Protein 1
Amino acid sequence: MTNNMIVRRSWLVVPAYDVDAIGHAQKYSPDVLVLDLEYMVAPKHKQEARAVLGSAIRSATESPSEVFVRVDWKTRWCDVKAAIYPELRGIVLPGPELAEEIVDLDKLISECEHQRGVMPGSTELALILESPRGFWNVFKLATASSRVTAVGVGRVDLTMHLGREPQGDFRLYLYLMSRTLVVARALGKQPLGAHWRPGSRGGIASLKDSFEAARRSWRMGFTGCLCAKPEQVIPVSEGFTPPSDEVKKADHVLQAYQQDLQTGQFLVEVDDRTYDTFKIARCQNILTFAQACAKRDEDKKLSMELETQQ
């Protein structure tokens, strides 16, 4: 069976103007390489970063990673105009709050696609929610444009908006993750987010904590998250990849289910547990995503080997 599922587990963010950082990031082969025009570029370097963005995008696409550009909300119009190229897969948009903002940005992207000879409608949008209003309007935001393919959970601005709880997390964290997840799943968008623990998150997280944050999120239903440093790519990708023992068990259950279907049974007993159609669907999802992850990793490995030989 052919599996064409798109796998985007690790979204590694690097400064858009830093050629050395981009080259270093490519060695880790993230699923997605995000060229950043937001936090990693000082205001005085913004114009310079936009000027070299086209060459940076072309350089980044020499690796097997898909390339996105994260724009700064305050300068999104200038950033988007500088980012649209045929090699670009999409835009990471932090902080949207109103559907009208997405509609307007969609129009701008369409104009830029036309001007630069990019296939109409091919530039995707990944929305990162960072405010109470954004989370309240998540369904409207995600349906405002067909370009939206992913919806994710931001953290820094939310902490400032909502405040911290005594244990160090910001208020309503799991609720906001769940809200994002439900909407993304209902609309067929990729849910992005990592369930970090207080005191070890983002750029200060250890490799072990990065893996565990990704694994917790995968069990919730998320399939990828942003990475703040290259060393997180491998543990994050592994955390969002179904564990081998669960893949083996899912395969075993599905085989037993197929055999029972031939005898007219709709429930299957495996290792003293009963599996109904809902649990069977979960097993199928685990197996399908695991196969897609394995194919993605193999494709990246072959691509890196070919680059080394050239």
Protein 2
Amino acid sequence: MSVKSEKELQKAEVTVVEKSKKVFVGYQERWWRVFNRFGPAIMLLAVVAGMSIAHPEFLTVPNLLTIGLQATVRAILAIGVLLVVISGGIDLSVGTSMSLSMVTLGMWVINSHGSLYIGMLIAVGTGILIGLVNGTLVAFLQLPPFIVTLGMLGIAQGLALTFSNGFSMYGFPKEFGFVGGGQVLGIPVPIFILAIVAVLASYVARETKLGRYAYAIGGSEEAARRAGIRVRGFKVAIYGFCGALVGIASIVLASRINSAHPGVGLGYELDAIAAVVIGGASLVGGRGNVSGAIIGALMMATVRFGLNIMAVTPFIQQVVIGAILIIAVYLDRLRILQERKLDKLRAR
């Protein structure tokens, strides 16, 4: 065999190997895209199927409506947390901030006999104020979001208990019950509220500077800064947006339980963060979407409802929720490692 023929044969072998690598990388990328897009929905269906097997009477229309109703508050909180997580932050205070917003609503409407509508604005304003404080401490004092919001968790809980003297407040007007317990065309009103919040949040995330810059900041804060984005200002606005949704969630929950309870929100932050991560958002920032957060919230509500009908004690439920959060973070870690692996394969 001539030298020329050997070189041509080697070149052909190299070409075949390169094509095989491209096919393999393309195959992995396609499956990865499918997993990223439909993974949360598949996990939700798996949980529903598992609950149905464990409890045959689980999958009924009334139960599904109840799950949807129970998921609304968690989903609204998750949507608020989503934008914070996309920007590379975290908010552990959303649960107790919801309690404090609820208490301010009760103080105005029940204790002061003020207007219900003004009281709802006060609740939303309280949430926004807490969010702005969190954002300011994170953006301008350069404090870690985990520490800031963990501290705010305790502050909000303490203020809620102080303002209410540690007792629940009762005596909201009857019409307030429609917000959390009414129905339109047989569908609970909170589900309509969630749908409106989801549409608005999706618009903010995709079509406004606040959303686009949140992705940019989460992807690379330094690159965003060099591109001329006012990173500090937008971080404050992102936490303020989260606070507004916390206030809305407090109104829905207060109407559902027909009271202002100073301790009811503690623990909701775990569900919200788990829902966001299960829905495909990354705790390192730069990725996530509203539909994923809602699916994650539905999964958390499904798990809690299923555990309740199976008579699992609240203490064991906390163990299960904690385990789900750890698994969700682990899945996020696997996503990051897989993406790095694909990047290396593309670079070869």
